[in-house]
Amino acid sequence: MHRPNVIGDWQEYKEDYAGLRVRVHSFKKGDVPPEGRDGNAKKLTYFSFRVTVENRAEEWFLIELERRHIDVRVGKDGDAAFIDYNSKEIEGFKLYPLRRASATFYAAAPARDLGVVAIQVHMRIDDEQSPAYVWVGGADVPESAVSTSKKASRAKGSIASEVSEFLKEQGATSGETTGD
Predict the structure, then answer these.
(1) Could you give the CA distance from residue 146 to residue 17 in angstroms, rounded to a whole number?
(2) If we measure between CA atoms, which residue out of 76, 74, 78, 52 comes closest to residue 65?
(3) pLDDT tens for residues 112-154?
(4) In DSSP terms, which residues pair with 5 in a beta bridge?
(5) Would the CA dihedral through 34, 40, 42, 48 be positive or negative?
(6) Does 5-140 carry CATH code 2.60.40.1240?
(7) What pTM does this model have?
(8) What is the domain partition of the chain in residue ranges?
(9) Which residues pair with 6 in a beta bridge?
(10) Are strands 61-65 and 124-125 parallel, antiparallel or unpaired?
């Protein structure tokens, strides 16, 4: 069973993209794009998050990270969030070794659903679709509260603890185990 990342975690790519890693971080509730609100997002609460790609390989990769490569789900039922057209994307960028590139995405959803947010990233690398990875978190939760350290992941009430417990329960009901 694959475990989702917690907002703030790095995810390493394997095989063809070894040396690349990606991270979703800097989740901010109430952050509106500098260009202003989209008319389609009336009565919704804006939020933003950043996606950073880092190259630790010895070669460069051509990366694209646009709105169409992001899927944002909110609330317990996983309803789709509106991703604003004013998001700052990465389009056809050569990411050289020991360099990073970041994109800022603005999205909107009902305020009551921002306690549970899942963000899936499946960017294009060298003109091919990369594997999709998911990050989970929520509004008003500082990234330090969702740290991946053993101490934080076992802390009662942390997002990491809740995700871990949920996955253990799901594994137990389906007969799978999720070793720590």
Answers:
(1) 27
(2) 52
(3) 999 999 999 999 999 999 999 999 998 765 554 444 444 444 4
(4) 135
(5) negative
(6) yes
(7) 0.76
(8) 5-140
(9) 136
(10) antiparallel
